[in-house]
Amino acid sequence: MQESHPVRKIIHVDMDAFYASVEQMDNPALQGKPVAVGGNEIRGVVAAASYEARKFGVRSALSGALAKKYCPDLIFVKPRFDRYKEISNKIRKIFHDYTDMVEPLSLDEAYLDVTLNKKGNPSASLIAQEIRLRIFNEVGLTASAGISVNKFIAKVASDINKPNGQKTIAPSAILVFLEELPIRKFYGVGKVTTEKMYQLGIFTGLDLKNKSAEFLEKHFGKSGHFYYNVVRGIHNSEVKSDRITKSVAAEHTFDENLTSEIFMVERLLIIAEQLEKRLKKYNIAGKTVTLKIKYSDFTQQARSKTLPYFISDKALLFETTKELLYQERMKNSVRLLGISLNNLNTETKKMVAVQLKFDF
């Protein structure tokens, strides 16, 4: 690792099957049963699956129909994002009892920099253990954690002992850990990239480490530089407690495909109202409106328009989106519509979203 950069104590906390676990906690009748949040046996996609459902191969982004085929006893539950956010806020309050250096990635996971912490505890592992225990006692859910010197390794480590476990990768163990790690478990290496690496003879971290920077950049572009560094334990991205919001969106998947623009306009008005609520809540406005269309054959299309001024009002969002809708004829029936707002005022003002010897 590069000695010119300080070694930090980073914890990555990841809630276990968060949405599904919240549903099981709130409804005891669902406990111990295979649960899918989102979708149904006819259409839609799974947003989250309980561990009981995962045993059958049910995963997020899987179609509801296929999920039901994999697990005939699967129970579908409608998502309650307000409830998930409520629980997430309770968990983040616990994080802030230990450090203000908290970078949320989503409602169910976050990075914490505890190099200097409010408890004066020199052990990041003990802090992670205490946080997980508090989440269980005060919220009623289990969490897993990864602990190491940077965000990349902490993120990878949090998946090792899931669910309800933690894994510490001390500085002296980092290189061996990464060399032995299957390439598919490297954070940032998705399914397509994994297959490409397999074709190039890269199956483990050691295989990756044996490739030159030139080789990796030739085959993976800018990502090649990232792969070259992280397999050597080099990842200098800091935990950023003030994250800048770059996009706000709302979308809806319909129970029946829409075949007429008239019906689509009706739905877009509702989506615009939902988006306005989110924008007003955080005092966000933007200039670029994007209409997202997903057709019945699962192909996607995006149409955008940039205005000369910031907007957040539902009427302006709706009128701009309606204009984009009629820009060209639909090529098929539509199963999903969404509106997003980019080029936000958060790019000019920050919005709160969110070698040393260590005792790990």
Summarize the structure.
This protein has 360 residues and is α+β, with helices and mostly antiparallel strands.
Describe this structure in words.
The chain is of the alpha+beta class. Among the domains are: 24-79, MutS, DNA mismatch repair protein, domain I; 178-239, 5' to 3' exonuclease, C-terminal subdomain (DNA polymerase, domain 1), CATH 1.10.150.20; 248-347, DNA polymerase, Y-family, little finger domain (Dna Ligase, domain 1), CATH 3.30.1490. Helices cover 36% and strands 21% of the residues. It contains 13 helices and twelve strands. It has helices at residues 18-26, 51-54, 64-70, 81-96, 124-138, 151-157, 174-180, 191-199, 205-209, 213-220, 222-230, 261-281, 314-325; strands at 10-15, 35-37, 48-49, 75-77, 102-106, 109-113, 143-148, 166-168, 248-258, 286-295, 300-311, 334-344. The chain has a five-stranded mixed β-sheet with strand order 5-6-1-7-8. Strand 10 (286-295) and strand 11 form a beta hairpin. Helix 10 crosses helix 11 (222-230). It starts with 9 loop residues before the first strand and ends in a 16-residue tail after the last strand. It is an enzyme of class 2 (transferase). Mg(2+) binds at residues 14, 108. Belongs to the DNA polymerase type-Y family.
